[in-house]
Amino acid sequence: MTDLTDQVAIVTGASRGIGKAIALLLALQGAKVVSVARSAEELEELNAKTQGLAIPADVADADDAQNVVDETLSRFGRLDILVCNAGVGSFNLLENVEAAEWDRIFDVNVKGTFLMCKAVVPHLKAQKKGHIVGIASDVSKRTFEHGTVYGASKYAQDAMLGSLRKELRPYGVKVSTIYPGMVDTYFNDSHPGSPELEKTHLKPSDIAQAVRYVLEAPPHVVVDELMIHPLTQEW
């Protein structure tokens, strides 16, 4: 298994939910975690536990995304892992979706993934190793009513990561995509911890363990895609 000790990992959307669980678990495994989100206060609380680096940033802003990578390299001198977890969503009939809402969802889910990958790829290619993990969704593989915008953004993110996987494979850089089902988090303005959701929703820690699984796979093992079903919690 690959040892995560002292590997430098950027985790976006790290202030709460899935991203927070990923950051905490990677730190527990010995990684140096760079936590990224827009909430500076929540990041500082997380960083007190991970003892890494907290960078408030908007991943949909090109300057912010590049600054995250620059600060990471300045602090640690290396970069091994990028976890693209930042995501937003809303669910509505197509005719009720405002153009601004479309832009917001695509900015974070698609453009944010694009900009963070664009900023790290030159470094990973140069060192001929590294790992990018995208947190997509099971709706990257299916459609559903009220999901026209969110589903479209996740299909786009999935296609981008799939193409990037082929671009980076000759350089020894892995790209893995994880497709969670419903997760008990703050996503879509929900409030986690409801007892009725325990049997139907995954926990953020389940997704964090999936990320750990793909990152710790031996160098010769490539886990391109990993679907996690909320009812069986199998992966």
TrEMBL record:
Family to which this protein belongs: Belongs to the short-chain dehydrogenases/reductases (SDR) family.
Highest taxon, organism lineage: Bacteria
Protein's UniProt keywords contain Transcription regulation: no
Name of this protein: SDR family oxidoreductase
InterPro entries: NAD(P)-bd_dom_sf, SDR_fam
GO molecular function, one term: oxidoreductase activity, acting on the CH-OH group of donors, NAD or NADP as acceptor
Record has Oxidoreductase as a keyword: yes
Keywords: Oxidoreductase
